[in-house]
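Dear Dr. H.,

I hope your travels went smoothly. While you were away I took the liberty of generating a structure for the chain from your last submission, since the lab meeting agenda had it listed for discussion. I wanted you to have the full record in hand beforehand rather than looking at slides cold. The sequence, exactly as received, is reproduced here:
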Amino acid sequence: MLAHEASSIRTAQATAILVNVGEVMIGNPLGMDIDRQKAEKKPPPKKRTTSQKVHVIACGAIAREILAVTRINNLDHIDLHCLPAIYHSYPQKIAPALEEAIANARARGFETIFIGYADCGTGGDIDKICEREGIERLSGPHCYSFFSGNEAFAAREDDITSFFLTDFLARQFEAFVIVPLGLDRHPELRDMYFGNYRKVVYLSQEEDPALQEKAKAAAAFLGLDYEYRFTGYGDLARELLAV
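The corresponding predicted structure, in token form, is as follows:
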């Protein structure tokens, strides 16, 4: 009798990104599984041409997370181009930069373009560009929402007085919060900016104790309470998997 053995390995991250690896073994003389035998007979996959790739134009503040999602899920059809992360603090610069980046991508031969921004404080300007160009963007009002999951974020009623940090902002708190607001030069302005906030909520994409300490320090600097929530990549992952 031939021995039959089946195993299935499923690894899941809290981000709802699932990477499934299945292997069926059969008792042949070489001890090789059928899937591997078939794979060895197949020619190597052809590389996609520029026109076949999806050109993602994204905020530099979420570049690390996009690269993580594409790496974990082998999304080699995604070609990533990021605009400067500092535009996160100056949303009026986003729409003009997107228009230029889209024109450049078209000139380079990309037929499919996806915008790696939510509305992000542009007052609907990104939506106008998407409608005119016939392209799509990340769902939601901002990165705090799509990392949390847009539906879950919208359902929370206790965050109106929360100041949010992501992994990126925890790392770059001084460069993206303190300096743009002038708090390094005028610390007395802190309460004017943050007097109506009650707490700092750190929405973490990766569980990193060092970043948690940075986020706690940011909350202390602002004189606010601190709350930690692990979100993973949220709707960012789901939408990238669909492009």
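Two observations you may find useful: The CA atoms of residues 25 and 32 lie 7 Å apart. The two ends are 47 Å apart (CA to CA).

With kind regards,
E. W.
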